[in-house]
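Quick one, tokens below:
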């Protein structure tokens, strides 16, 4: 394995830390019913891992909605405000052991998510991970989120690592595309029920249990 500090690991949140995509799908289905629209499965898959802005741009274009993108984002925000989810209950069990193993080996780690800061804070608080990440980055800090690479490039800068020395763990096509554009190594995590295109990943796994500091260190 490379010596301590020779590489850093950047985690996505939804679909990597917590199994939240099925929950969000249910919330979105209710939202689509309220808007009286039908969103095809191929469009839904394109939305995973991306920003709310990109989501509503695609849906507005496909469904011909009269509202502005900004109005739709606000409508979603208000609709989701009352939704409750205990993220600890849907945390992937292999997350904490991997994080602790990386930390004990001197590997700096970050969380870079297309979610807003409020939701990120809820997730890491529920899951007991508040002080485990060296850097936490949210979508609000950037004009564009994934698949734009800026979120990963800025995360690498804050970690003090060159992009080529960073390994991104992602479950979405948008996230892997962003990491590719950033010049980073990529691990694609399969979801048991949501078929994502992970072909851009350097390594594809079924669970974080398959990763270790040694395996990750050999990637860079």
């Amino acid at each position: 394995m490379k010596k301590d500090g020779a590489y850093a690991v950047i985690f996505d949140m939804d679909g990597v830390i917590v199994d939240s995509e099925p929950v969000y799908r249910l919330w979105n289905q209710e939202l689509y019913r309220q808007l009286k629209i039908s969103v095809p499965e191929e469009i839904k898959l394109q939305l995973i891992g991306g920003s709310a802005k990109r989501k509503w741009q695609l849906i507005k274009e496909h469904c011909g909605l009269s509202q502005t993108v900004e109005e739709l984002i606000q409508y979603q925000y208000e609709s989701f405000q009352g939704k409750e989810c205990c993220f600890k209950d849907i945390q992937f069990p292999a997350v904490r052991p991997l994080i602790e193993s990386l930390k004990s080996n001197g590997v700096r780690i970050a969380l870079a998510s297309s979610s807003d800061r409020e939701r990120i804070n809820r997730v890491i608080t529920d899951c007991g991970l508040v002080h485990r990440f060296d850097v936490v980055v949210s979508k609000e800090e950037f004009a564009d989120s994934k698949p734009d690479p800026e979120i990963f490039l800025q995360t690498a800068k804050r970690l003090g690592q060159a992009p080529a020395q960073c390994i991104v763990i992602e479950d979405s096509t948008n996230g892997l595309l962003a990491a590719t554009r950033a010049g980073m190594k990529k691990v694609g995590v399969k979801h048991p029920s949501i078929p994502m295109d992970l072909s851009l990943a350097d390594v594809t796994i079924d669970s974080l249990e398959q990763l270790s500091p040694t395996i990750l260190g050999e990637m860079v």
